[in-house]
From TrEMBL:
GO terms for biological process: mitochondrial respiratory chain complex IV assembly. It comes from Kazachstania africana (strain ATCC 22294 / BCRC 22015 / CBS 2517 / CECT 1963 / NBRC 1671 / NRRL Y-8276) (Yeast). Belongs to the PET117 family. InterPro entries: Pet117 (IPR031568). It is found in: Mitochondrion. The keyword Cell cycle does not apply. Residues 1-28 form the signal peptide. Its main location: mitochondrion. This is Uncharacterized protein. The keyword Transit peptide applies. One of its GO terms (cellular component) is mitochondrion. Keywords: Mitochondrion, Signal, Transit peptide.
Amino acid sequence: MSRASKITFGVSCLVTAVTVVGVHIVQGMERETLHQGPIKDAKRLAEKKKLKEAKVELDDETKLKKRTFNINDHDKQQELRKKYETMQPLTGEVVTKDGEVVSSSLSN
């Protein structure tokens, strides 16, 4: 065997060995990455569930505040209506500038 063929054979064997070792290392890293996937998913889902529960609590508080505000506002509007009806009763009639009374079809 000539020197050139021995060198070519040696380099080919070395490249093959490096390729095999490299493939095994990459497969190990991929396996570890795949193993971490479900763990990360479980953490992500737990955090998402926590946030959702916190949001539901906030939504309930917000709804309660809005409902309370609406009830208070409705009561104030009813009081104002009574106050203004005492000042100027609502008869459903419209009086024009000329003093003509026009019946309105709008009801209270």
